[in-house]
Amino acid sequence: MVELTIYGIVLGSIISLGSIGLTLVYGIIRFANFSHGDFLTAGAYVALFLVTGIMAWIGIPDTNFGSLSFGWRMVIAFPISMAVVAGVAILLDQILYRRLRAKKSGAVILAMSSLGAAFIIRMIILILWGADSLFYKPGLMRPAIELPLGAKIRPDQILILCVVLFLVAALHIFLKSTKMGKAMRATADNKELALVTGIDTERIIIWTWGIGGALAAAAGILYGIDVQLHPYMGWNFLIPLFAATILGSIGNMYGALIGGLIIGVAQQVSTAFLMPTYKLPVAFIIMILILFIRPQGIFGKE
Amino acid sequence: MEIGGIIAYLVSFAIMAGIYAVFCLGLNIQWGYTGLFNIGIAGFFCIGAYASAMITTPKPTGIYAHYVHQIFGLNLPFIVGLVGAAVICGIIAFLIGIPTLKLSEDYLAIATLGIAETFRLIFNNEHWLANGPRGLMGLPQPFQGLIDPKNYNYIYLVIIVIIMVVIYIAIEKAIRSPWGRVLRGIREDEVSAAMSGKDIFHFKMQSLVFGSMVMGIGGALYAHYTKSISPDVFTPLYGTFIIWVMLMAGGSGNNKGAVLGAYAIWAIWIGTKFMTDFLPYTLKARAPYIRFLIIGILLEIILIYRPQGLLGEEKKVSKMMD
């Protein structure tokens, strides 16, 4: 049980990264982005392309750091992949959502467009890589460290937690102390008021997509390091991401962080009683319960 | 291909597109007339198909019981299967509606998506329920003995067309009634509909349940056409996404558009299969993804350039107005 809780925190931290981006988009741009899960997949596969394709071609050595399952290649690929997916998110906004906003299409039409974008991203991944599960390093032994109470944790998982902590802290500082961060929070709080005070909402929207896409890419790569890569990995994260977002109140970054951890731990602990394939329904049932008890989420106002 | 083969091909095309047209009509009640964002059509597709399958087949006995697990089998006629599928889908829609219809539109979308994925997983994993991933086979077809099995599709096409027309007329009647006008009022402006004393929640609920019942019938029609079902059919792509593209292409808020969209997009879908046949051998295994990519891009083009679809909405639905 202790071990499952620890794995749950690792999974939860990955969900948190994804849902922070989702909640920012939801709060600032005001629509449910159904392609957010597939941003995770895109991030993981872009990193795969860099690690096993480009960097092997350039000749960057493929040695691991100590007992971690990756080395310099991944360290270089990680930020590049984040930037690429941020670019993809911004590009989708420029091609699709900006035009729909200009036509005054409703939030539901934007959500539908994002659902279409989700399928487009996934189909491109399926065309390029096929439907099989892939690994950054196939056939690698994964040593684990013994913890008290008989729990085991892999060095990779400790690193995942550190990376998530670092990214969340960086985002926190960005939102609290930069001008753009403050403008983003103001827009999430009250869009009309933000417009009146002269905040350039189009620029904020671009930044929001960039941050959301980059965090989603990071989440996807971390999941790929922890478990494996699969074209449907992000789609299967979509319900947990929304559950975490709703649980932590839409638009609230810290709520999404806590919501993600709760969903992750609940999903992982449930495998003690249920088949692991039921992780997704577990997240779904928590979401439905929240909708009954407190639809505005933990941190929402009455 | 000789002429008989071509006709048989066209008949099977018309049947599948007709089944999709039933789903489009169901979705049109929810989205086209009420503005409900249901992206879990695959869930109702799945439930309708399994419900009808288990109502119309006998529970396996003897040696078969070792190979085919099925929680119940009632061995009742086809028409009972259709009704049963509709009723069960209606009940599930009702249960989903309770927590979500009082909130903004997105919540219904997320909840229906969740329910669709959940049911697919349940049918896949619970072997005692409906034979797990292997699914159910040998479903009965109505009027099976009347005609040479090789020509059976003609009968099924007639059945599909009759059911499609009945559903079409039922929806037209409902939409042209005061009830239908309230739905459209809610879609256009929820606040002013509420201020006119309409109970928004109940009207939305009725629309959700009605539409989902039609989808349940669609699921049942599919099951008895293919005679075998397994959970991998009811994916978000085949079960939900393509139906949305059909309705958006045909024109949401227009029943003729719903039917037209189903036939047009199914024709494009089949047409892209011929196109991908020319692909080099190495790409052939990935042809379905290329075809879905085309459908996805098509949806984005429709949303940006022609959101009203081919036919667009019929604005006047009252006979009293000219």
Topology (SSEs and partners):
The complex is a heterodimer of chains A (302) and B (322).
Chain A: H1 2-28, H2 36-58, H3 72-102, H4 107-129, E1 145-146, E2 152-153, H5 155-177, H6 179-189, H7 191-196, H8 201-226, H9 233-247, H10 253-270, H11 279-293
Antiparallel strand pairs in A: 1-2
Chain B: H1 3-33, H2 41-56, H3 64-67, H4 78-100, H5 105-125, H6 127-130, H7 152-175, H8 178-188, H9 190-195, H10 200-226, H11 236-250, H12 255-276, H13 281-284, H14 287-305
Helix pairs in contact in B: 1-7, 1-10, 1-11, 1-12, 2-4, 2-5, 2-10, 2-11, 4-10, 8-10, 11-12, 11-14, 12-14
Given the helix and strand composition of chain B, which structural class is it?
mainly alpha
Biggest interface and residues each: A-B, 40 and 42 residues
User: Mind telling me the C-alpha Rg of chain B?
Assistant: 20 Å
Helix content of chain B: over 70%
Overview of the structural elements:
The complex is a heterodimer of chains A (302) and B (322). Chain A has 302 residues and is an all-alpha fold. Chain A has a domain at 25-233. Chain A is built from 11 helices and 2 strands, in the order ααααββααααααα. Chain A has a two-stranded antiparallel sheet. In chain A, strand 1 and strand 2 (152-153) form a beta hairpin. The longest helix of chain A has 31 residues, at 72-102. The radius of gyration of chain A is 19 Å and the shape is globular. Chain B has 322 residues and is mostly helical. Chain B has one domain (3-321): ABC transporter involved in vitamin B12 uptake, BtuC, CATH 1.10.3470. Chain B is built from 14 helices and no strands. Chain B has helices spanning 3-33, 41-56, 64-67, 78-100, 105-125, 127-130, 152-175, 178-188, 190-195, 200-226, 236-250, 255-276, 281-284, 287-305. Chain B starts with a helix and ends in a 17-residue tail after the last helix. The relative contact order of chain B is 0.18. The mean pLDDT of chain B is 88. Chains A and B meet through helix 3, helix 4, helix 9 and helix 11 of A and helix 5, helix 11 and helix 14 of B.
